[in-house]
Design goal:
The chain has about 270 residues and is an alpha+beta fold. The chain has 4 helices and 15 strands. It has one domain (about 10-250): Creatinase/methionine aminopeptidase superfamily (Creatine Amidinohydrolase, Alpha-Beta Complex).
């Protein structure tokens, strides 16, 4: 399978599912408090997607080759968990940072987005890492326009993260998205400007950099899904689903509660 360019009809559906995914994060925000379990957050999001939005939660029973079916409806990655954290009985406590990753399916199309949440008050370092990861996402988004290369995205992100003394996870990446959850191309969050495939109008893919406060190395827990930093340093991630337009990009997973592009990053030429 090669990279698909979406039709106007598909783009319309991707706008709908993308906004719905963002709205799940808006909905869950007031519940992310000390004492709530990640399992409770999963249940609330599941019920909202299914009963209010009429969506299918894409993670539930998702089973790429080599993986056992994912057992929950969202991913909850706490502190040194990098991604794919499986919700459970663990209570969030003051000072935790947690990524909630939502993927909706509506009319057969996927919308994929994640944000960091600070539970109560966290350390300056934890706050700073969450901000840095958000800025990294937007450094990547800023590169998106027809004629740019995938490597421009990875380079911008890697440069920004490493300049701040943090590191970029290599094993997981952004991805094309549409009828399928994970499509071509792979959007890695490191690399050289000007390399990789050229972006074309009507491509849709995610950008979702995982930024570690310590070293980049990761390992998988025995549950077969949860990824953690090898050195137990904190990790942060934000994700949007992006459409390449004639003039640049459109963020498909923006919703009323999502933060806009940070003014702290300089815009691309
Ligand atoms: N939402 C994740 C991504 O951004 C993928 C999660 S796969 C799951 O690509 F099975 F863990 F849900
Ligand atoms: Co994704
Ligand atoms: Co995701």
């Amino acid at each position: 399978m090669s990279i698909t360019l979406k039709t106007p009809e598909e783009i319309a559906k991707m706008r709908v599912t993308g906004r719905l995914a963002g709205e799940v994060l808006d909905y869950i925000t007031p519940f992310v408090k000390p004492g709530v379990t990640t399992g409770e957050l999963d249940r609330l999001c599941h019920d909202y997607m299914v009963n209010v939005q009429g969506c299918i939660p894409a993670p539930l029973n998702y089973a790429p080759s080599g993986y056992k079916p994912y057992p929950k409806s969202i991913c909850t990655s706490v502190n040194h968990q990098v991604c794919h954290g499986v919700p459970g009985d663990k209570q969030l406590k003051n000072g935790d940072i947690v990524n909630l990753d939502i993927t909706t399916i509506k009319q057969g199309y996927h919308g994929d987005t994640s944000r960091m949440f600070i539970v109560g008050n966290a350390s300056i370092q934890a706050n700073r890492l969450c901000e840095l990861a958000f800025e990294c996402l937007w450094m990547g988004i800023d590169q998106v326009r027809p004629g740019a290369h995938l490597g421009d995205i990875g380079h911008a992100i890697q440069h920004y993260a490493e300049r701040a003394g943090c590191s970029v996870v290599r094993e997981f990446c952004g991805h094309g998205i549409g009828r399928k959850f994970h499509e071509e191309p792979q959007v890695v969050h490191y690399g050289q400007a000007g390399t990789g495939i050229e972006l074309k109008t009507n491509m849709i893919f995610t950008i979702e950099p995982m930024i570690n406060a310590g070293k980049a190395a990761i390992r998988e827990l025995a549950d077969g899904w949860t990824i953690v930093t090898k050195d137990h340093s904190l990790s942060a991630q934000w994700e949007h689903t992006i459409l390449v337009t004639d003039t640049g990009y459109e963020v498909l997973t923006q919703s009323a509660g999502s933060r806009s592009r940070p003014s702290s990053i300089k815009s691309s030429p």
